[in-house]
Amino acid sequence: MSPLLSLDHVCSGYGRIAVLQDVSLSVGKGQIVSLIGANGAGKTTLMMTIAGMPRLSAGRIAFDGEDISQMSTETLIRRGIAYVPEGRRIFAQMTVLENLQMGAYFSPPSKYRDDVEAMFTLFPRLRDRMRQRAGTMSGGEQQMLAIARALMARPKLLLLDEPSLGLAPLVVRQIFDTLVSLRETLGLTLLVVEQNARLALSVSDYGYVLRNGRITLSGTGRDLLQSPEVQREYLGGGL
Ligand code: ATP
Residue 152's closest CA among 120, 119, 189? Predict the structure, then answer.
């Protein structure tokens, strides 16, 4: 399968603080790939580096056949990379509809109505709450809105940072079911950072383990779920 995204020997960090060291990974078109690791391993830094901030200090990132290592975040959004950050960062004081409008900032205005309608079909709760202030919705609804807002940019690749954070197990399950269906209905490719390694790996084609800024293990979701290291360190001691 041809990779949509590939990182080759990427190093990145914040000023003199080196976080990612020699990270290589690839995400095939239409795949769900998850990235697991302990707090502070560098998962968010990896996602943000793909999204253009911070910039990589060494290596190369290619997306859809192009070297994107030096592209601005705006150009990356236009090329088809959308990022749903940890903690969702929706605009709490704005309505659901206004949040979706913000997500469409770089999309063709002629597509706006169709795209909003498509989001309301994918996420019917958002239609019901269209005029409600986003900050008054439940955590699960806010996560759905954060995903829908990212999809308004018509991405090919969706980067999701900790979609399950702070949500009840049943809601987390719904979010992951939604992610799997997005891959099917929109042909989307997904790279997901997730603390709930068991759930993430169970829906992933492939996974990577990040430790202290380096990839230490990779394999199919199924292989990683059976790996003794993953079971010991990320699945609470066994299946
Ligand atoms: P978590 O699961 O806690 O979000 P993570 O795996 O996503 O962890 P990062 O947030 O990427 O890890 O952090 C990796 C390292 O980079 C940590 O040591 C962190 O303190 C440091 N770091 C993160 N953001 C900054 C920043 N803006 N400036 C300096 N150092 C940072």
Answer: 119
Residue from 10, 12, 16, 17 to probe ligand 1 pocket by mutation (most atoms less than 8 Å from CB): 17
How many residues appear in the chain?
Answer: 239
Ligand 1, atom nearest to 195 Cα: 2
pTM of the model: 0.93
In a domain, 239, yes or no: no
Provide the number of structural domains found in the chain: 1
Q: Identify residue 134 by its one-letter amino acid code.
A: A
Lowest-pLDDT range of 6-20, 45-59, 75-89? 75-89
How large is the average pLDDT for residues 42-46? 96
Burial level of 213, CB count in 10 A (0-12/13-18/19+)?
A: buried
Q: Ligand 1 in contact with 170 (CB < 6 A)?
A: no
What is the reported pLDDT for 238?
Answer: 43
Mean pLDDT of the 162-168 span? 89
Ligand 1: centre distance to CA 65 (Å): 29
**Taking the CA of residue 229 as centre, how many other CA atoms within 13 Å lie in the half-sphere pointing to its CB?**
13
Q: Confirm whether 135 is domain-assigned.
A: yes
C-alpha span between 206 and 34 (Å, rounded):
7
State both tokens at 204. 């992933």
Question: What's the confidence (pLDDT) of residue 235?
Answer: 86
Q: Does residue 61 register a pLDDT over 50?
A: yes
